[in-house]
Amino acid sequence: MSSNAQLFDRACRSIPGGVNSPVRAFRSVGGTPRFIKRAQGPYVWDEEGTRYIDYVGSWGPAILGHAHPDVVEAVRTAALDGLSFGAPTKAEVELAEVLIERLPSLERVRLVSSGTEATMTAIRLARGATGRAKIVKFEGCYHGHSDSLLVKAGSGLLTLGNPSSAGVPPEFVAHTLTLEYNNLQAVQAAFDQHGADIACVIVEPVAGNMNLIKPAEGFLQGLRDVCSRHGAVLIFDEVMTGFRVGPQGVQGLSGVTPDLTTLAKVIGGGMPVGAVGGRADLMQHMAPLGGVYQAGTLSGNPVAVAAGLATLRLIAQPGFYEQLSRQTLRLADGLQQRARAAGIPFAADAIGGMFGLYFRDTVPASFAEVSDSDTDAFKQFFHAMLDRGVHFAPSAFEAGFVSATHDDSVIDATLDIAEAVFGEMKK
Ligand SMILES: *Cc1c(COP(=O)(O)O)cnc(C)c1O
């Protein structure tokens, strides 16, 4: 048996930083990442055989809990018929039809293999369809790792942003305007100045990549109005929120209809599936019908599609989201009560099967506010919980996820452990 520490040492000799996606490396909390050997329901087990209650959920996909038997069976059955064909399949048509049926804003949908591909494609499509170059995004929203989206806000409201990654030439983000989340006035000002050049606004309609931040009353409708007025495409990036916050994503909860939607995570049920969908007249611009190029060797992969279809079928059961929301709220409220009883500045928020934990007095509404939380307290909390068998995301700036298998006994066990941890933190 190898320990997590031994495996991490070994990993670092063959993989940069020992991980295949940076947040897994525990850099913002310190310590050694757990190497997961297997997972079932609400639990993951590491290579040392230690069991953890898991609130990472593969960063969103595991909405049914890990290794749901029906999903695993669907994957096994599909695999027996071949892993990939590079030709159309009936199952991918079924997945497209299910997505269109569930999300009223979707008239056509193209399957890809990740959220990054979906957002990159949506932006190219918006630019191709409008013939405009500029895009608007919001500080703290993450839309995958394509060049023009790796940008941080400049110092002034309408100054150009800077690349947030080495290897992205400033010219590549020169058309990306980065504005403050929940600040409609900034959006209005950007359109006043650049309206005729703005192809699209892309937004996480509930932000889940700067911890959890909900849209302020009227923010999404305001984006809808300003985009319609200026002929810009409104893109809801529902890669995280789609089928996670409710049966129709944030668009269903808010009643605001985007022109394009990007999806991934839950729709793949733990396998690599992404999607971009929306208005037929916009989607018509994609190759082979139109001039916007997009392709993928493994797009609509039959094994991945089988996992997605099985997942979408199971989450359509009556009462699924009521139960998921109830359990998530029970966790968030329970943690807040116990932290505050221990005198620790703490707030929590939840929507559907997503939650946010903040070591500050109030729920934040922007990147600036969430950045103003006690990250040392978070680190202490994270490690103390991990030592006692509860695995939260290893960063104060990530949302958490609850699955359908997090029943009362799992949530209560978490809250009991948290009460002990908060009590110790006070000292
Ligand atoms: C996870 C995520 C992405 C990127 O998806 P990948 O599958 O990791 O490429 C894009 N947008 C949002 C909102 C996400 O949460």
UniProtKB/TrEMBL annotation:
<keyword id="KW-0808">Transferase</keyword>
<dbReference type="GO" id="GO:0030170">
    <property type="term" value="F:pyridoxal phosphate binding"/>
</dbReference>
<dbReference type="InterPro" id="IPR015424">
    <property type="entry name" value="PyrdxlP-dep_Trfase"/>
</dbReference>
<dbReference type="GO" id="GO:0005737">
    <property type="term" value="C:cytoplasm"/>
</dbReference>
<dbReference type="InterPro" id="IPR015422">
    <property type="entry name" value="PyrdxlP-dep_Trfase_small"/>
</dbReference>
<dbReference type="GO" id="GO:0006782">
    <property type="term" value="P:protoporphyrinogen IX biosynthetic process"/>
</dbReference>
<keyword id="KW-0032">Aminotransferase</keyword>
<protein>
    <recommendedName>
        <fullName>Glutamate-1-semialdehyde 2,1-aminomutase</fullName>
        <ecNumber>5.4.3.8</ecNumber>
    </recommendedName>
</protein>
<dbReference type="GO" id="GO:0008483">
    <property type="term" value="F:transaminase activity"/>
</dbReference>
<dbReference type="InterPro" id="IPR015421">
    <property type="entry name" value="PyrdxlP-dep_Trfase_major"/>
</dbReference>
<keyword id="KW-0413">Isomerase</keyword>
<keyword id="KW-0963">Cytoplasm</keyword>
<dbReference type="GO" id="GO:0042286">
    <property type="term" value="F:glutamate-1-semialdehyde 2,1-aminomutase activity"/>
</dbReference>
<keyword id="KW-0627">Porphyrin biosynthesis</keyword>
<dbReference type="InterPro" id="IPR005814">
    <property type="entry name" value="Aminotrans_3"/>
</dbReference>
<comment type="similarity">
    <text>Belongs to the class-III pyridoxal-phosphate-dependent aminotransferase family. HemL subfamily.</text>
</comment>
<dbReference type="Pfam" id="PF00202">
    <property type="entry name" value="Aminotran_3"/>
</dbReference>
<comment type="subunit">
    <text>Homodimer.</text>
</comment>
<dbReference type="InterPro" id="IPR004639">
    <property type="entry name" value="4pyrrol_synth_GluAld_NH2Trfase"/>
</dbReference>
<keyword id="KW-0663">Pyridoxal phosphate</keyword>
<dbReference type="InterPro" id="IPR049704">
    <property type="entry name" value="Aminotrans_3_PPA_site"/>
</dbReference>
<comment type="pathway">
    <text>Porphyrin-containing compound metabolism; protoporphyrin-IX biosynthesis; 5-aminolevulinate from L-glutamyl-tRNA(Glu): step 2/2.</text>
</comment>
<feature type="modified residue" description="N6-(pyridoxal phosphate)lysine">
    <location>
        <position position="265"/>
    </location>
</feature>
